[in-house]
Amino acid sequence: MAGWWRALFGRKEREALAPLYGTIVAAARDPDWYARGGVPDTLDGRFDMVAAMLTLVLLRLEAEGDAGRAPSAYLTELFVDDMDGQLRQSGIGDIVVGKHVGRMMSALGGRLGAFRAAFAGGDLDAAITRNLHRGASATASEHALARERLLAVKTRLDAVSLNTLLEGRLTL
Which of 38, 90, 150, 152 is 20 to 30 Å apart from 31, CA to CA? Predict the structure, then answer.
């Protein structure tokens, strides 16, 4: 019985984060990432951008400690639901959707570790090359633009209150 109440409460909490998730996806779809930032304009490249923007938000929530734990989990659930839907829409069958989603979650976890370390060490270059450009050679200006934009997003995230962030009332 307690699980049912927790699921109901969790659903409302998750739905409340839909505007924030929409902001994350909108930021990831900004054509500038692809046209000038060197991110491949492919399904994989678009996934990389959604994962990168989500990672920045999750790192911001992580900085909140206990207050950020539940929102991080619910936001991650929204990501899983979105990716599951995208896979099904692209024709991936029920039998292998879980395996693909598992790989996506692993990729998200890898990005969390890479960007956490990159921001702590002050050097985003390797994380950008691996996670946005997928090891492909981007021009110096593409790489610089990606770095500048990621840092700008992080700065904006760091400047907003937790409530403003959770309500999705910001521009990434």
Answer: 90
- Determine the pLDDT at residue 97: 65
Full DSSP string of the chain: -HHHHHHHHHHHHHHHTHHHHHHHHHHHT-HHHHHTS---SSHHHHHHHHHHHHHHHHHHHHTTTHHHHHHHHHHHHHHHHHHHHHHHHTT--HHHHHHHHHHHHHHHHHHHHHHHHHHHHT--HHHHHHHTSTT----HHHHHHHHHHHHHHHHHHHHS-HHHHHHT-S--
Mean pLDDT value across the chain: 87
Q: Flag whether pLDDT at 17 surpasses 80.
A: yes
**Cα–chain-centroid distance for residue 21?**
9
Residue 14: closest CA among 88, 101, 83, 72: 72
pLDDT tens digit string along 75-125? 999 988 887 767 666 666 666 666 766 788 888 999 999 999 999 998 899
Hey, what long-range contacts does 100-109 have (CB within 8 A, 24 or more apart)? 104/47, 104/51, 104/80, 105/76, 105/80, 107/47, 107/51, 108/51, 108/54, 108/55, 108/76, 108/79
Residues 22-51: what's their mean pLDDT? 94
Amino acid letter for position 19: P
